[in-house]
């Protein structure tokens, strides 16, 4: 009982055994935009995988060179037409991915599916509905992103909190070693983002996000008529589609590392600060 | 120990939440109030793309070197009806394209009439809603010329295209592929009644004798085997009421993205 009560106090930042104080870390626009983004990215990734499943292959250039995809998720059938094997082709090399990619179980039966049902939205193969979800949340992401960028620049949040300083760059090697040892900044150092964190956020905000929106728009034939330069920038519609796919998985990679860092550097403290704004700084504490 | 329990709890909470979210999304996809919101998003996309693209911007055109060695045929590959087979045998000599509805001057055109109009040839990229693209050279009569000859009435808003390929699922009453475009898209300079692909007369799998090319739209908006064009002010009484065969199956009417 005592353990639980103590744990609860620690989680809420109410322990009095160590000197600590509350620090207001995230203003409301950051918190609201963060959670809208989180929902958008989950829906966009999963509905995107459902759309991809309609033609689970990627190409380079303007048109699809069906003989030579750079990536393809295929299913193999036996003589009676039953799906028996799922194969992922990467640059012409086959990898057996039965059960996950190319072929996975739908209602207990192995079926031809690029990505499995548990990874797509809707779970069933339903291109028309997946497209509607995808475009609706793409609008929400762009509107939210517009608001966040306006806020970030005007309030100097980007300049103050996200732009890496000279010191950040100089400390980068030490930062990498510390992160690899799962040693995270604490105490006063936790009041601002560290160098690696700043670089990760800048990479996602200023490179990945604009890139995934622009390559998404390049896939629209009407947008190509309005802005043919998009095709020139990305090297054709099919290359844009491939870049869009790579960006989506880069977002997934960011998400996985982001969640790992949140958990390892103090789940509740981080979660509380992104929900209420308040973050607990422990002076000389073991983890912040 | 407390830390471990807490992590276990977080893990279970995340797994539970994602399962709830997944089944929740599936349920939402079936709810009219939610799909209505998604439908409004289609209007927003349509309006926004209209602002950026306007009625006149051209789809990119390519060179002979970009043409795909084999143009992928999709959808109906052969209408297969007795009527259509007879047209194939007679080389579409008796094929007529009627233009009716909200026009001052209804028309019934033969393939010779269509071929007599000043043709346009364009090498363009065909984008399927599934995600793939294929480049081909199309020759045809600009639809704008046909519409101008038919003299649309002021209240006409859409051109509906009637096709010869049956889409009947067993047990349903007989129905055929159809599509529609707003008049500005139908009158776009690259919108053709196309009768040649890569210099050859259109093959059966590509929509012989004539198909629509609407180069700023996805493939399903470009029907094959066209035999009728009707100008209407709304399409709620045609087919399933959504403006096209795939639209009736849940695809968006706006096919610019």
Task: Describe this protein's structure.
The complex is a heterodimer of chains A (288) and B (257). Chain A is an alpha+beta fold and 288 residues long. Chain A folds into two domains: 224 residues, Up-down Bundle (Fumarate Reductase Cytochrome B subunit), CATH 1.20.950; 55 residues, no CATH class. In chain A, 55% of the residues lie in helices and 14% in strands. Chain A contains eleven helices and eight strands. A four-stranded antiparallel beta sheet of chain A has the order 2-3-4-5. Chain A is globular. Chain A starts with a helix and ends in a 6-residue tail after the last strand. The mean pLDDT of chain A is 91. Chain B is built from seven helices and ten strands. Chain B has a five-stranded mixed beta sheet. In chain B, strands 3, 4, 7, 8 and 9 form a five-stranded antiparallel beta sheet that branches. The longest helix of chain B has 29 residues. Chain B is globular. In chain B, a hairpin with a 5-residue loop joins strand 1 and strand 2. With 257 residues, chain B is an alpha+beta fold. Helix content of chain B is 32%, strand content 24%. Chain B folds into two domains: 29 residues; 193 residues, Alpha-Beta Complex (Sulfite Oxidase, Chain A, domain 2). The interface between A and B is large, with 49 and 51 residues.
Q: DSSP strand (E) fraction of chain B?
A: 15-25%
Query: What about the largest sheet of chain B?
Result: 5 strands, mixed
Please report the distance between the alpha carbons of the first and last residues of chain B: 53 Å
CATH architecture descriptor of the largest domain in chain B? Alpha-Beta Complex
- Number of folding domains of chain A? 2
As laid out across the biggest beta sheet of chain B, the strand order is 2-1-10-5-6
Taken from the alpha-carbon principal axes, the silhouette of chain A is globular
Low-pLDDT stretches of chain A? none
- Following the backbone from N to C, one meets helices and strands of chain A in this order, namely HEHEEEEEEHHHHHHHHHE
Tally of helical runs of chain A: 11
- Strands in their spatial order, largest beta sheet of chain A: 2-3-4-5
By secondary-structure content and strand pairing, the structural class of chain B works out as alpha+beta
State the helicity of chain B in percent bands: 25-40%
Number of E strands of chain A: 8
């Amino acid at each position: 009982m005592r353990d639980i009560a103590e744990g609860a106090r620690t989680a809420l930042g109410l322990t009095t055994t160590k000197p600590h104080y509350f620090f207001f870390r995230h203003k409301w626009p950051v918190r609201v935009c963060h959670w809208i983004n989180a929902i958008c990215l989950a829906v966009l990734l999963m509905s995107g995988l459902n759309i991809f499943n309609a033609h689970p292959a990627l190409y380079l250039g303007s048109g699809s060179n069906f003989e030579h995809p750079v990536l393809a998720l295929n299913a193999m059938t036996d003589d009676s037409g039953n799906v028996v094997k799922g194969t992922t082709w990467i640059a012409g090399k086959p990898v057996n991915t039965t059960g996950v990619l190319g072929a996975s179980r739908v209602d207990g039966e192995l079926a031809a599916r690029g990505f499995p049902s548990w990874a797509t939205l809707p779970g069933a193969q339903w291109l028309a509905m997946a497209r509607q979800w995808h475009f609706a949340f793409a609008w929400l992401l762009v509107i939210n992103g517009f608001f966040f960028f306006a806020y970030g620049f005007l309030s100097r949040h980007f300049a103050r909190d996200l732009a890496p300083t000279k010191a950040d760059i100089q400390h980068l090697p030490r930062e990498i070693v510390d992160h690899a040892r799962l040693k995270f900044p604490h105490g006063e150092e936790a009041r601002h983002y560290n160098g690696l964190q700043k670089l990760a956020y800048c990479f996602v905000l200023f490179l990945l996000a604009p890139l995934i929106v622009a390559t998404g728009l390049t896939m629209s034939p009407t947008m190509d008529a309005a802005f043919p330069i998009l095709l020139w920038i990305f090297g054709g519609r099919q290359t844009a589609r491939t870049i869009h796919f790579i960006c989506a998985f880069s977002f997934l990679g960011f998400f996985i590392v982001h969640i790992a860092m949140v958990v390892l550097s103090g789940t509740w403290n981080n979660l509380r600060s992104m929900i209420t704004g308040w973050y607990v700084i422990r002076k000389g504490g073991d983890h912040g | 120990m407390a830390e471990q329990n807490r992590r276990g709890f977080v893990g279970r909470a995340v797994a539970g939440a994602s399962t709830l979210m997944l089944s929740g999304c599936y349920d939402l996809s079936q709810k009219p109030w939610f799909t209505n919101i998604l439908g409004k998003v289609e209007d927003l996309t349509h309006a926004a793309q209209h602002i950026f693209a306007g009625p006149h911007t051209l789809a990119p055109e390519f060179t002979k070197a970009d043409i795909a060695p084999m143009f992928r045929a999709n959808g109906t590959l052969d209408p297969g009806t007795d009527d259509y087979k007879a047209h194939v045998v007679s080389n579409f000599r008796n094929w007529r394209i009627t233009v009716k509805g909200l026009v001052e001057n209804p028309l019934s055109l033969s393939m010779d009439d269509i071929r007599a109009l000043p043709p346009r040839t364009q090498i363009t990229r065909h984008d399927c809603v599934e995600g793939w693209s294929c480049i081909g050279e199309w020759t045809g009569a600009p639809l704008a010329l046909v519409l101008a000859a038919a003299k649309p009435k002021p209240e006409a808003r859409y051109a509906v295209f009637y096709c010869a390929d049956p889409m009947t699922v067993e047990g349903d009453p007989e129905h055929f592929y159809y599509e529609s475009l707003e008049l500005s898209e139908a009158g776009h300079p690259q919108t053709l009644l196309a009768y040649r692909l890569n210099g050859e007369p259109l093959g059966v799998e590509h929509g012989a004798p004539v198909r629509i090319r609407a180069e700023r739209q996805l493939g399903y908006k470009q029907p094959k085997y066209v035999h009728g064009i009707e100008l209407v002010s709304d399409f709620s009484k045609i087919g399933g009421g959504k403006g096209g065969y795939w639209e009736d199956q849940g695809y968006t009417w706006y096919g610019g993205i």
